[in-house]
Design brief:
Two copies of one chain form a homodimer. Chain A has helices at about 5-35, 40-60, 60-70, 80-100, 100-125, 130-150, 155-165, 170-190, 205-220, 255-275, 290-305, 310-325, 325-330, 335-340, 355-375, 380-395, 420-440, 445, 450-460, 470-480, 485-495; strands spanning about 230, 235-240, 245-250. By secondary structure, chain A is mainly α. Chain A has two domains: about 5-150; about 170-495, Neurolysin, domain 3, CATH 1.10.1370. In chain A, strand 2 (about 235-240) and strand 3 form a beta hairpin. The radius of gyration of chain A is 23 Å and the shape is globular. The interface of A and B includes residues 26, 228, 242 and 244 of A.
């Protein structure tokens, strides 16, 4: 078989696998948004079947044979070409996939569905005991997965590699150490109570009006509602079902405007990335983000760097005030901006401000590493969790629901996922800083409701690049420097010390 | 291999196929309810892939081999046993499936998705020309399908067999002829204008309150909202994603209470059937309805026999009146009941009353038979359609949107589906008549809001029977007589001649 023919066959195989995965994505979207409770057992069977089919395809020996034909041929000679990138990434994915036993994959999907349900029950009852057996199973399966796919230094490397390819435990630990050392004192210093009218954002914000405002903001930012939608779910997320079908789910709170709104900006950031990916590459790595951390950088950039800026609110605050006049009539733009840029340590990641947020992530990363290695028995998680919160944030969760049961990630089998949030924050600040300089200051455009300059920069440097480079390389290429926490620390320092 | 082992393997295969089909069902549900417009191309790919996978499984030669081992063994000796029923039906489905070429199946799924989109566009533009090329393609593919699976007298037999197994064109024609002969004069006689306050149902009925009322009625009828849900869609439907996950979609109209409400009752009727099927048989024919006509009988029974009865409204009318007091304060229960039981010939099937309804169906059945046989060129459909409406109902659609473009069935490739609606009406009246006699009159219970007696009768005689018998046989067993239009004509005569 000729290389061109082999590449065409590979494209067909990969595309079919992506279409199949997109069916599974819709099942997940539905599970989070609309599925009735009684549907959970069948959903577990559906997810297991899809996982099995996907694995079967992903580990199809034909992939290996076809890849061998293209690799080393003239077709893939230029490592920067689309073909070479696709071949490189397909090989990487295939090598991981073929080492995973099908039983483990199917069982993983089943355990994830039931585990997620058990976690919901456990959280409702504020009782870790209800979830513990599932988490134990999930940790054991994560170890089996790591052992099956292999790793260089520690099993956690294998976990990370699934979400942030190329990033090692050692590198993440180093980046996080630099951040932690500066954040702990910063939190302590900035969380001294200031005289801010924060209570106004806890007044009445009717959900239907929040939705109208949110949709208008999403559209202004560039999110195309003909090629996507925005729903509500108890856990916000964004998923791309396919080109032209990017779905966001958020959660509005009647008496907490900021909570719902910044989650919306966050998910729209993900959505803009998905809508910015070149549909011509659908089904191939050039049509995918290189890592979750890079995907997260886009959500964080819009949520924090854009959404907490003065320019953004110069444009939107008058509109906001007219929509929620009864709740916002007595707060100025300046006070509003201070309120949304203030530090308030608490036990909850989802409600955390931008400064404390990364400490929540560092706690989770450290604890999951310890559970995976066996240093921390799963049964001891609640105690270790609370201890870490006291140490890093000086807060104590009042029960497991407020503590180690607050996030659903582990219940869905996602170990090694949490670090990507903070990597996203690091990348986001670094990218925004560079875009701002390249574009000669973006806030004046924001103040006119114009986000097209920034979006264009991101489309060009990030969204359209697919998996051409690893996240780390792409950030370095776009900004001229390897990822470092400095721009993030600098931006926090600037925005949270508004005087 | 021993018969028991072969049967176990068959069960696994069939169940897996059902789970896969349920993924496809969710894709369809989503397409009708929430999918953004931009998702249509990927959805077509998803549906084609799923159709291909399903066909691959449904025609897997292992089915044939395993069936041969069980057939004729002691396991299947009693033809009334679950095993024998499952084997009989799996064989029937397998024989159809294995004769269908995979290309035709996949292409059919693709054409259905695009055809449905073209139909929406055509209807919006009231221009049959936009849809014509797709309908031509769909008719050609239906012929190919009939030729592939074979038929006894006419290609339409093969089409019917997919929706109403065992029913032939000849039998349907005979049943419909009996109905038509009596309905045409009945419509003429009953549609003389009466002095009824029909306009009150076109006053203001806020959709949110309609939804609350609808959900309360659905629950009272026995629909379990923990194991199902009710959404809105531009085309109402009910789909069972799996045991415990039965989904209804309806469409409320602010200024047409009856339209939305009777559609709801209809879909709840389907939903009650799906929720009444024994989950232990999930994945096997004993866990499925034997035909669409029988499924439809359940929706029609609740919509018409129950929902238009005096007893039903003796219970619900006071509640309805209190919810929509401003619109219903000046209408009595008696007048309300006459309004919902009145004959008003019009061009639209979806808005048709119960008496004219079956003439709409007979028109479609005759026209699709003519298109399939080639007697009616697709290009001539609009003219033939309008001619039939003048002849049977004395009405003339004002354009194609109001005429031959009003239904989406053909656009999704469903030829031979329409007759099942009228078969459903025939079965429904016959079943209700018998249940009423067996239970010593059901309306007095309805008047107390109690539908459990009727639901119990249906659960026992129909829902729990799965595919043990064909629809025709099951109706005969439950009522003591072969299906006949007489009970339907009698019930129409009684309810629509209220004096």
């Amino acid at each position: 078989m000729q290389p061109a023919e082999a590449y065409a066959a590979l494209t067909t195989l990969a595309r079919e696998e992506t279409v199949l995965a997109s069916c599974s994505d819709l099942l997940e979207w539905d599970e989070e948004t609309f599925m009735p409770r009684g549907g959970v057992e069948n959903r577990a069977e559906q997810m297991a079947l899809m996982a099995g089919l996907l694995h079967e395809r992903g580990s199809d020996p034909r992939f290996g044979e076809l890849l061998s034909i293209v690799e080393g041929s003239d077709l893939a000679a230029d490592p920067a070409s689309d073909v070479a990138v696709n071949i490189r990434e397909l090989r990487r994915e295939f090598e991981r996939e073929r080492l995973l036993p099908r039983d483990l994959v199917e069982e993983g999907a089943r355990v994830a569905t039931f585990g997620a349900q058990a976690w919901v029950d456990a959280r409702e009852a504020a009782d870790f005991g209800v979830f513990r057996p599932w988490l134990e199973k999930i940790i054991v399966m994560a170890r089996e997965e790591a052992d099956a796919v292999g790793f260089s230094e520690t099993r956690y490397d294998a976990m990370l590699d699934d979400y942030e390819p190329g990033m090692t435990t050692r590198e993440v630990t180093a980046l996080f150490a630099g951040l932690k050392a500066r954040l702990i004192p910063m939190v302590e210093e900035l969380s001294r109570p200031a005289d801010l009218p924060a209570h106004v954002l806890r007044r009445e914000f009717p959900v239907d009006r929040q939705m109208l405002f949110a949709n208008a903001v999403a559209a202004a930012m560039g999110f195309d509602l003909e090629r996507g939608r925005i729903d509500t779910a108890s856990h916000p997320f964004c998923t791309s079902i396919g080109p032209g079908d990017v779905r966001i789910a958020v959660r509005y709170q009647r008496r907490n405007f900021a909570q719902g709104f910044f989650v919306l900006l966050h998910e729209v950031g993900h959505g803009l990335y998905d809508q910015g990916i070149d549909a011509a590459h659908y089904g191939m790595p050039m049509g995918e983000a290189p890592s979750l951390g890079l995907h997260e950088s886009q959500s964080r950039l819009w949520e924090n760097q854009v959404g907490r800026s003065l320019g953004f609110w110069e444009h939107f605050f008058p509109r906001l005030k007219s929509i929620f006049h009864e709740s916002l009539h007595d707060i100025s733009l300046d006070a509003f901006r201070r309120v949304i840029n203030r530090v308030t340590p608490g036990p909850n990641r989802g409600r955390a401000d931008e400064v404390t947020y990364n400490l929540h992530i560092i706690i989770r990363s450290e604890l999951e590493q310890a559970m995976l290695s066996g240093d921390l028995p799963v049964a001891d998680l609640p105690g270790a969790w609370n201890e870490a919160y006291r140490k890093y944030l000086s807060v104590t969760p009042k029960n497991d629901a407020e503590g180690c049961l607050q996030d659903g990630h582990w219940s869905e089998g996602m170990i090694g996922y949490f670090p990507t949030y903070t990597l996203g924050n690091i990348y986001a600040a670094q990218l925004f800083d560079r875009a701002d300089r390249d574009l000669g200051g973006v806030e004046s455009a924001f103040a006119k409701g114009d986000f097209s300059g920034l979006l264009g920069w991101l489309r060009d440097r990030i969204h359209s690049q697919g998996s051409r480079h690893s996240a780390r390389e792409l950030v370095a290429l776009a900004t001229g420097a390897a990822p470092t926490p400095e721009p993030l620390l600098k931006s926090l320092d600037t925005r949270y010390r508004i005087t």
